[in-house]
Write a structure and sequence with these properties.
7 helices, single chain, 3-stranded mixed β-sheet, elongated, Immunoglobulin-like, alpha+beta, 377 residues, 9 strands, Serine Threonine Protein Phosphatase 5, Tetratricopeptide repeat, 4-stranded antiparallel β-sheet
């Protein structure tokens, strides 16, 4: 088969001997690339050889290289071209024994895709991997190389259909194109405007403003509407807050109570902790004294070598005990102060909502300052 790859009877525009020699070099390079598995290099060399002289043997080798790259559809086309050259008697017939079984093998291995359209669809166009497919192939089995392919079906009056299809060797896939009709001339329903934010209507007959002759601020006499719980009319700016009386005061009181409780807890924790440390230091003092032994004088003033370590431990323990006692005392005092402040705040700090009896409160109405006389019960 290799020997007959470049042999053919004479015909019109037959290449010269020099051109045949160059084509032979290309074919030899392609054969070497095939033996090494460099199929793309083999395809490049075979294309150059075929450009000089096309034979069934060269087409067969080209199909074989493309088959090994997974390009089954392309390989089948090359085998068919080789078969056509054999039937045209343009090359040695010994190539036929290789091509016939290859064509049968390709028919079984090449996957196919059939794209179907909804009934009554006309003028549809199919694209596979961005390349246009003839409309006559719609509804028929289209040979594809194994792998994933991008499909696009376009039909007048319908939205484009897009799909990703994966085909394997020997598979036969049928994909129905779901073409959704486009509604011509449809318009989105108008969106109802949002209602304007509510605002109180202005008074039809505003009450005249009364100015005090001395220029001092006076209280406008307005009817009290929707008096809130707590005695503050609506529209009156309370000095303790702009909403329900006592809301701001209650919030401040809460934060003060939280701070005082935190101080109390911290002081108590420090006091208890350092009292425990002082007891531990006292234990060390007792241990050092027991090692030194009972004596009327102070042996650690000029300690002998045998008592040097015990005297040092005793001095350290005494220093730690004094320090721990002082810190524990400070912590407990702080806890006592925090607890006293906490109790005082609970008893003495009254929010406006807790007031009882007659009171006078500064107030502001519509930009004017004045006083408000009230009675809480």
């Amino acid at each position: 088969m290799v020997a007959g790859a470049l042999s053919a009877p004479a015909r019109a525009a037959e290449p010269t001997k020099a051109e045949i020699a160059v084509a032979r070099q290309y074919f030899d390079a392609a054969t070497a690339a095939e033996n090494q598995g460099r199929w793309r290099d083999a395809i490049d060399q075979l294309d150059k050889a075929i450009a000089i002289k096309e034979t069934a043997g060269l087409r067969y080798h080209l199909g074989f290289a493309k088959e090994n790259l997974g390009m089954l559809v392309d390989a089948m086309l090359e085998y068919r071209r080789a078969s056509g050259l054999i039937h045209s008697d343009t090359t040695s017939v010994d190539v036929e024994r290789f091509i016939v079984p290859k064509l049968e093998e390709m028919r079984k291995r090449v996957p196919t895709l059939r794209v179907t359209l909804p009934p009554g669809t006309t003028g549809a166009h199919l694209q596979v991997d961005g390349a246009a497919v003839k409309p006559e192939l719609l509804g028929n089995a289209i040979p594809l190389n194994p792998g994933t392919h991008a499909l696009v079906v376009i039909a007048p009056g319908h939205r484009p259909f897009h799909a990703q299809i994966t085909v394997n060797e020997g598979s036969a896939i049928t994909q129905a194109a779901e073409l959704v009709p486009e509604v011509v001339g449809s318009a989105s329903a108008p969106v109802a405007p949002f209602p304007a934010p509510w605002s109180p209507a202005p008074a039809e007959h505003p009450e005249p403003r009364v100015e005090s002759p001395a220029g001092a601020a006076a209280i406008r006499r307005e009817p009290l509407r929707n008096t809130r719980r707590g005695g503050t009319p609506e529209g009156v700016e309370h000095p303790e807050g702009r909403d329900f009386p006592g809301s701001s005061g209650s919030s401040a009181k809460t934060w003060v109570l939280i701070g005082e409780a935190a101080v109390t807890a911290a002081g108590l924790g420090i006091g208890v902790g350092y009292l425990a440390a002082a007891r531990a230091a006292q234990t060390r003092v007792d241990e050092s004294n027991s090692h030194i032994g009972p004596t009327t004088s102070n042996p650690c003033q000029n300690p002998p070598a045998i008592l040097l370590v015990d005297c040092q431990n005793l001095s350290t323990a005494l220093s730690d005990r004094r320090r721990d006692h002082r810190i524990a005392l400070a912590g407990l005092v702080g806890a006592g102060v925090g607890a006293s402040a906490l109790v005082a705040t609970l008893i003495l700090w009254k929010t406006p909502s807790q007031r009882r009896g007659l009171f006078v409160t500064p107030m502001s109405v519509a930009g004017d300052a004045g006083l408000m006389l009230g009675f809480a019960h």
